[in-house]
UniProtKB/TrEMBL annotation:
Similarity section: Belongs to the glucose-6-phosphate dehydrogenase family.
Active-site feature positions: H240
Gene: zwf
GO cellular component annotations of the record: cytosol
Organism annotation: Actibacterium naphthalenivorans
Name by which UniProt lists this protein: Glucose-6-phosphate 1-dehydrogenase
Length: 484
């Protein structure tokens, strides 16, 4: 198998917040890796913009250090790094003032793709959008990239969308969710819609339930102030996990095109039932020898914010009516893993007797670590002595199946930034999709805030609070083990 790298058109990418942590850890290393792979044309330029006073040489030195820290050593050829840095410029600019904007206007070129990455807090989105137009920098073909959070609730999401819509059309706005750039997430669509094997079974008649787990071993760390104002529901469920749910549950789009895919995702969100209080479990991790507990991390002993949440969700449409979706995410859990498990129903009748009851087939899509797809099937155990059934995996990890090429699979930011340059919005969220997700999420949050529920304490390094286990046990089901 030979991977193909298709160069993109010449572009100018302006990164507002170009000295920030996201730019240093993710955006700039991703751009370098695409340059190393030969996808960036020689005419491409990257312009970092921020309030800090730097010149080009100082900014390039910062990027060189970031490449050294966040790019694999075998991709750090000195000549390639130097060639990449030649395409980088820096501009001191005030997002809320007028300093630097005329200079940026003078740097822009005609005849190339213009993309503006808002790697800043949402409070600056409106200022940046307004000044891009006031100074004649952006035009009808320009593209802007905005990072989450896309609001804190429905009201703020609508206000944010309205602010951006004053200056940019929807087709110019790229709301980035890095989960949608993961290779396995996109393979989920390929597995569903590229194989007759699965799609006829992908419904409530054949699927018993679906589990989505995103577990992290780290705590909130230096994000304590932000995280305590958001929590797992806003930080993970409303966006990342909602997107995974949509890709699993949506109907086949008429084509793999941006609005066709996003139309079907929107239908899923609008078909979500309200969640009963008894179908939600919230938790906070406690402290141990490996680190402080949640309350210490956020420096708020009275915090009622959840670092863990598990919930049972139903979708009221013809395909999924009656099939529960169990979502679970948390900090300081036993292992770092993200997976989707489609658990099929038991055979209607076992011809092998009670002692050889068949186990359900399970299709597991692993997002991290060791991305791949696993299908557990029942076979006869080899050897004499009668019909003894065993469960075995049909396992495809990208690393094993693709060999060395798996190491060169672009990460999420690489893929998504190149999609911005191409003008492909398929893996980006639309404004009405974001608002629909908040419209479903807000009543859930409002209900527990009104009751003043305190999250359940769970042990760091565990699978979460005991109540989360009971959420499935009462339905006669079990969570899959959290393991790397």
């Amino acid at each position: 198998m030979v991977s193909r790298v298709i160069p993109v058109d010449p572009f100018d990418l302006i990164i507002f917040g170009g000295t920030g942590d996201l730019a240093r850890r993710k955006i700039l290393p991703a751009l370098y890796r695409r340059f190393w792979a030969g996808q960036m044309p020689p005419e491409a330029r990257i312009i970092g913009a921020a309030r800090a006073a730097h010149d080009d040489a100082e900014y390039r030195a910062m990027i060189r250090a970031a490449i050294g820290e966040f790019v694999a050593p075998e991709k750090q050829e000195p000549a390639t790094v130097d060639a990449f840095l030649e395409r980088v410029r820096y501009l001191t600019l005030d997002a809320r003032g007028d300093d630097g904007w005329d200079a940026l206007c003078g740097m822009m070129r005609n005849g190339v793709v213009q993309a503006f990455y808002f790697s800043v807090g949402p409070g600056l989105f409106g200022d940046l959008a307004e000044r891009l137009h006031r100074h004649g920098i952006a035009d009808a073909e320009s593209r802007i990239v905005v990072e989450k959070p896309f609001g804190h609730d429905l009201q703020s999401a609508r206000a944010l969308n309205a602010t951006l819509a004053q200056h940019f059309d929807e087709h110019q706005i790229y709301r980035i969710d890095h989960y949608l750039g993961k290779e396995t997430v996109q393979n989920l669509m390929a597995v569903r819609f590229g194989n007759m094997l699965f799609e006829p079974l992908w419904n409530a008649r054949n699927v018993d339930h679906i589990q989505i787990t995103v577990a992290e071993t780290v705590g909130v760390g230096g994000r304590g102030d932000y995280y305590d104002r958001s929590g797992a529901m806003r930080d993970m469920v409303q966006n990342h996990m909602m997107q995974l749910l949509c890709l699993i549950a949506m109907e086949p789009p008429y084509a793999f095109e941006s609005d066709a895919v996003r139309d079907e995702k929107l239908k899923v969100i609008r078909a979500l039932d309200p969640v009963a209080p008894g179908d939600i479990v919230r938790g906070q991790y406690g402290g141990d020898s490996g680190g402080p507990g949640y309350l210490e991390d956020v420096e708020n002993p009275d915090s009622l914010t959840e670092s863990f949440i598990a919930l049972k969700v139903h979708i009221s449409n013809w395909r999924w009516k009656g099939t529960p979706f169990y979502l679970r995410t948390g900090k300081r859990m036993r292992a770092r893993t993200s997976e989707i498990a489609i658990v099929f129903k038991d055979p209607p009748h076992s011809i092998f007797g009670v002692q050889e009851r068949q186990k359900a087939n399970v299709l597991v899509i692993r997002l991290q670590p060791n991305e791949g797809i696993n299908l557990r099937v029942t076979i006869k155990e080899p050897g004499p002595g009668g019909m003894r059934l065993v469960e075995v995996p049909l396992d495809m990890s990208f690393k094993e199946a693709l060999g060395p090429e798996a190491e060169d699979i672009p990460d999420a930011y690489e893929r998504l930034i190149m999609d911005v340059i191409r003008g492909n919005q398929t893996l980006f969220m639309r404004g009405d999709e974001v608002e629909a997700a908040w419209a479903w999420t807000d009543p859930i949050i409002a209900d527990w805030e009104e009751r003043g529920d305190r999250p359940r304490l769970y042990e760091a390094g565990s699978s979460g609070p005991e109540d989360a286990l009971m959420l499935m046990h009462k339905d006669g089901r079990r969570w899959r083990e959290v393991k790397a």
